[in-house]
Design goal:
Length: 236
């Protein structure tokens, strides 16, 4: 990250601590502040040589992200603060494994204790791991992968392979990458083979992420337009 790009990234941080994103709606683009882009931008800042201003920005981002937690649900996070969903959204999104993993990755990157991330992974998120592949599921939907939403009442609740990459990153930081990373590798191999053979579409592998040449998505997750690249993926 060049010094100019660093200044540009820091300039997108709102007084609240969130980093700016952009959503594309039928009436045009709008600025947005969400957990996904805020966590990814803060993580990207911390990948570079530490400076007081980047550390402060990341800490402010984490403070804002705490507001994206869900009342009565320890250690889990959603795309927006529960009382801070934009008017155009039309619904309140529950907590999800992707944003939960990213918030805890930021917490670890800032040197905080592993206690809360470990609790979130092994307790709060454990119920989202598939114990077996559903009957008739696509060949890349394997036992051991995580479904997206941390709310058993929300259907459909798909497996997103990009979201599982962020969960894999959290598991790796906590020293328990296996067996999830092996299962995820097999899932990606199967999914990419299906793509190459024309038996699958990119949005079937990662329904909540922006894919090359993709059109609009029937999902409630804006595209990240932060000025830094995601360490893993950019989500729609």
């Amino acid at each position: 990250m060049s010094a100019v790009t660093l200044r540009e990234a820091l300039a997108t941080q709102a007084p609240s601590g969130a980093f700016a994103a952009r959503v594309w709606l039928p009436d045009g683009p709008r600025q947005d502040h969400n957990a996904f882009c805020t966590a990814l931008t803060a993580l990207e800042l911390l990948r570079w040589p530490r400076r007081p201003e980047t550390l402060e920005a990341a800490r402010r981002a984490l403070a804002w992200l705490e507001g994206c937690g869900r009342e009565g649900r320890r250690g889990v996070y959603g795309f927006y603060p529960w009382c801070g969903h934009p008017d155009w959204m039309g619904e309140r999104l529950p907590a999800d494994v992707d944003d939960t993993a990213l918030v805890h990755l930021l917490r670890l990157a800032l040197g905080e204790s592993k206690r809360e991330p470990a609790w979130a992974l092994h307790v709060a998120m454990e119920g989202q791991r598939l114990t077996r592949a559903p009957r008739g599921a696509s060949p890349w939907i394997l036992a051991g992968l995580y479904t997206t939403w941390l709310d058993g009442a929300r259907l459909p609740n798909p497996v997103d392979l990009c979201a599982n990459l962020n969960v894999a990153a959290l598991r790796s930081r906590l020293g328990c990458a296996e067996p999830h990373v092996t299962v995820l590798g097999a899932a990606w191999a199967s999914g990419l083979a299906a793509l190459e053979a024309g038996r699958a579409r990119p949005e079937q592998l990662a329904p909540y992420y922006l894919t090359p040449a993709s059109g609009s998505r029937p999902c409630a997750a804006p595209s990240c337009a932060a000025p830094t690249a995601s360490p893993l993926c950019l989500r729609r």
